[in-house]
Design a protein that fits this description.
With 242 residues, this protein is α+β, with helices and mostly antiparallel strands. The chain is built from 6 helices and 13 strands. A hairpin with a 2-residue loop joins strand 6 and strand 7. Bound molecules: zinc ion (ZN). Zinc ion binds next to strand 5.
Length: 242
């Protein structure tokens, strides 16, 4: 069983056409494509375990401009794959655990699995029509490698992983009186700490207000408090609570 990671796609010469069409691809136009690097690596990994993976969309998809077409985020690259693994509930438990854990998944735009959609941090976004696993990756990740995620895929099928997860580092931190707020680069979550305990701020309204305050305060790397951050880092990523 193989997986198709490059080719030539034609926008169907007859409609009905769907939006978006950000590159203005004409009916009948041919576009040579390759999979974005993360998609190629993920598809290859699942395929090694006998799972069928689809990258390029069918004619229905190609009438629009979503991530199964080579004219969505970067012309000539495809940012999504469909992983046709049979046990969607098992795959959902596995994947959501990773998204909500300490792995760097900031390169994931969103996933659909078991009819639900989650963002790259594992926050539920709503109903999705996809029972199978659909992964969309961020535009900025087009040439990025996802070797750690590939290891996790092999682990899902019972192969031992060889390295441990790198620890993400809080990159935006701001001290306000007795409290410190911090946010990991590329992640929406904000944590609050009183230097003794810490907790995740999950409620969207509170999150939004804290993010606004962080921004107004001009929080940046320069605000890191060197003697405090390593202990918070260890506290958060060593025994995460949320
Ligand atoms: Zn899909």
């Amino acid at each position: 069983m193989s997986v198709v990671l490059s080719g030539t796609a034609y926008r169907p010469s007859s409609g009905p056409y769907r939006s978006p069409n950000p590159f203005g691809i004409r009916p009948g136009q041919a576009v040579r494509w390759t999979a974005a690097t993360p998609i190629a690596e993920i598809a290859t990994a699942f395929n090694k375990h006998g799972v069928t993976v689809y990258v390029i969309g069918d004619n229905y998809h190609l009438r629009g401009g979503q991530d199964h077409t080579p004219w969505s985020k970067v012309l000539g690259r495809i940012f999504a794959c469909d992983v046709m693994y049979g046990d969607a509930a098992k795959m959902e438990r596995w994947l959501v655990g990773i998204l909500r854990g300490s792995e760097d998944t900031s390169w994931i735009d969103y996933v659909n699995i078991n009819n639900k959609q989650y963002n790259g941090s594992g926050t539920y976004q709503g109903y999705s029509g996809d029972h199978h696993l659909h992964i969309s990756v961020e535009k900025g990740a087009v040439n990025g490698h996802v070797s750690r995620f590939v290891q996790l895929i092999h682990a899902f099928f019972g192969q031992k992983t060889t390295t441990t997860a790198p620890k993400p580092v809080p990159t935006v931190t701001k001290r306000e009186g007795r409290f410190m707020f911090f946010q990991v680069q590329g992640k929406p979550e904000v944590y609050i700490s009183n230097f003794v305990t810490y907790r995740h701020v999950p409620d969207p309204a509170t999150l939004k207000s804290i993010q606004g305050r962080l921004k107004k305060l001009g929080a940046s790397d320069a605000d890191l408090v060197p003697e405090v951050v390593p202990s918070i880092n260890e506290a958060v990523w060593g025994k995460k609570v949320d």
